[in-house]
Amino acid sequence: MTFEAMWRDLAPIGRSASSGGYFRQPWASAELELRAWFREQAAARGLAVHEDPFGNLVAWWGDPASGGAVLTGSHLDSVLDGGAYDGPLGVVSALAAIDLMRERGVEPARPLGVGVFVEEEGSRFGRACLGSRLATGAAAWEDVAGLTDRDGVRLGDLVTGGPPTPWLQQVGQFVELHVEQGRGLVDRSAPVGVASGIWPHGRWRFDVTGRADHAGTTRMEDRADPMLTYAMTALAANKQARLAGQRATFGRIEAHPNGTNAVPSRVTAWLDARADSDAALADLVAAVEKQAAERAERDGTRLDVTAESVTGEVSFDPPLTAAVAADLPVLPTQAGHDAGVLQAAGIPSAMLFVRNPTGVSHSPEEFAETADCEVGVEALATALTRLVS
């Protein structure tokens, strides 16, 4: 099956009729349909599929027990109302690359796997790259089994969990193809590029507690309104990131009791912060927290900040990147990926990017031209052939 045919199969799954965006949250109906599709595609190619206790899938061409395997692939889940390409492009391209390698008569001397890591976006349980973190041991099952989604469903009720199984110990190298989530390749007029590394990044929960009150009868000067503290904190994050040339975003907020005619008693908001070095990230978050604390004191509210997940700077494996890159442009990325988790765990990793002409990601506007995707398949097939031969 060609790349285009596979892409047409996936296009309607989990797509919103109103926004055109995708809702492919882990272990929900759309994502489960995609997982079934992946198993069917693997079976059609004679690839044996393994599922680990956390829901990660890998389809093997060759016997992984022989060791030194090469792994490719990405993820199938999406952010809420996300784009079509973030994740699935890497999975479809990996299958298409195997087809192309077979057309060329490649006989791998090393096993080749196509992986699908689960809950990469953290859109359901709030932990980005959760599947790869659990598989590598970077996250412990006992620490995350009790996580709940917005509906109160526990992660531990959806998957078996437990200690990591040793399948990643059979992997010697990982190459992930992904749609670019910016305009680096547009600016370079290149359809495909390779990543040098990933900026350090993390998520922090800001809990602001105040006092619930009547929106009409309570004088403004008598209020302890956590929404005011949050609003100032969001503005502070924007200002501090702009001044430092970094990234800071409050994209999720919950107000309690969430009534139109009531001053809230509590506001919980999540900060996504990213910077070009570990020190710059720490400075950025500290500056935002300082301004938030000062505002909380003025508002008569209480602020608690919790680091939910923090990932340090990742530099991809130089020899592997050189083998994958050929003459491709090299650029850093500010987005987190499973490849970064595997690299941090000691598995040499590299990333290919396919041009996104809109430069927009995590949005229905995310896009890649079919011609560029096919160049990406070619680049991936060439790199994998070099690695498995």
From TrEMBL:
Keywords: Hydrolase. The keyword Metal-binding does not apply. SUPFAM superfamilies: Bacterial exopeptidase dimerisation domain (SSF55031), Zn-dependent exopeptidases (SSF53187). The keyword Hydrolase applies. Residues 203-298 form the Peptidase M20 dimerisation domain. Signal peptide: none annotated. Transmembrane segments: none annotated. Belongs to the peptidase M20 family. This is Allantoate amidohydrolase.
